[in-house]
What does this fold into?
Amino acid sequence: MTQKHKLYALAFMGCLALTAQAQTSYNAGILMENQLNGTARFVGMGGAMSALGGDLSTMSTNPAGIGLYRSSDVALTVGWFNPSSKASFNGESQEDNMSKFSFDQIGFVYSSKIGNRTNVRFLNFGFNYRKVNNFNNNFRMGGLSPNNESLSRSMTGSLLALGTTPADFNAVLDGEDNPFGNSDYGWLNVMGGMTGLITGDEATGDFYYWNADRLGFRSENRGGINAYDFNVALNLKDRVYLGLTVGVYDVDFRRYSSYYEDLIGSVDNPTMNLENWYHMEGSGLDAKFGIIVRPFEYSPFRIGLAVHTPVWYNLSDVFSSRMTMFGLEGKDWSVDTDGYVDWYDYNLRTPWKFNVSAAYTFGQNVALDAEYEYADYSSAKFSDTGGYDLEGANQTISEDLKGVSSFRIGMEARLLSDLSLRLGYNYMGAVYDKNAFKFNDPQGINTDVDFMNNFEAHNVSVGLGFRFGGFYADVAYVYTHQKADFHPYTNYVFDEPDPTASVTHSNNRAVLTLGYRF
It folds into this structure.
């Protein structure tokens, strides 16, 4: 993080108190970073089918693609995925991975022929369930702490920046009232004071922190976003295709994380462990409008345009945390927030999205599709259940997120009458600005101090399609490669680099679609 952004954080410290709102740009990013999911044909072509159409997954990119159907279709897709990550920190590398099966898609199109001489040739209706995002992954990092830095130093610095004195802080910790109910002190600092991670000396007026010999982190993410797409599409004179998709979303995200430091003291060398549990759930709604045009009567060239409205999410969060100092003065000191938190309801509006595409078919043997997509993620907005903007959280979104361009290209070649080969490439731009960071308000309730800035993602895919009369079976493999920077915490109070691990994400996925056209 640059010094400019650190100064910005200090300027707003105490002014953006999020005691009643725990949302950050990273909560929003969970719902907006995209993955390549869908039918095996769609995946095999890198998701590049918005102008070609004729596939169930195009309901979610260009709804007009369903207008190219001339027969009814039903299909389901299952998959296997193997996400892994490798983190390099201060000369040490750690890896983690998992393997799991998933149910990715099931849907149908009902194609109704109107006539050969009418303006509307076909009127088609479709429904498709799809897995939008699959959150299942594990991550770990660790190594020697650079310059023996500790999270406790950043915590004491934030107290001093607020003008807090040890006498005031100790009075809150030792008072009869629950210290978690005092809005002047963030929960992370309260937990540090109650366990001995930070201490205040009233005689000298100083706060004391620890040095760390080693630090480490691990997390387990689970859940996903499911979408239920309802589509209607028209074929006008075999030249213009129009489509509308209404999407209903179901969100379930669960995360456990554990951060530890092996501390260095004059007498004891305790270990601090900070655990966080986070659960987000909710629902959303959006609409997508699309058109595909064949501008030249005797040419197979097509152009497509689609506009996606924001997704309006109604969300609920709940979290809890626990901090433990193992082996301090011969004992273990532990405190947790369980029982002090409840579900918090709020709304999120994602940005508009725009897709432009072009496709060309060479006879009956080769089809090409290329497309570009753009969304300005910095325009996403949090609001409370009354519809009022959460200004502090929205400020972090405008600073941390940015406009994102995505590009994809795909090819399908018929090798035999019943066998097709597919190739695809899918590029997804980075959602986070390179200087994005998680601002942990020293007066707020957030205690998860880590954050990951993912860079652009590259997806390379290959697939095969088999036809047996009306039945078909498609398979695809996609490899995803993405770099990232991971920060176990932000050292925003001081003019030193944040602890940073360089991360490489990769994911091997295989999908199988079985379907029938009639």
About this structure: The longest strand covers residues 211-236. The longest helix spans residues 151-161. Residues 180 and 340 are 8 Å apart (CA to CA). Residues 1-20 have pLDDT under 50 and may be disordered.
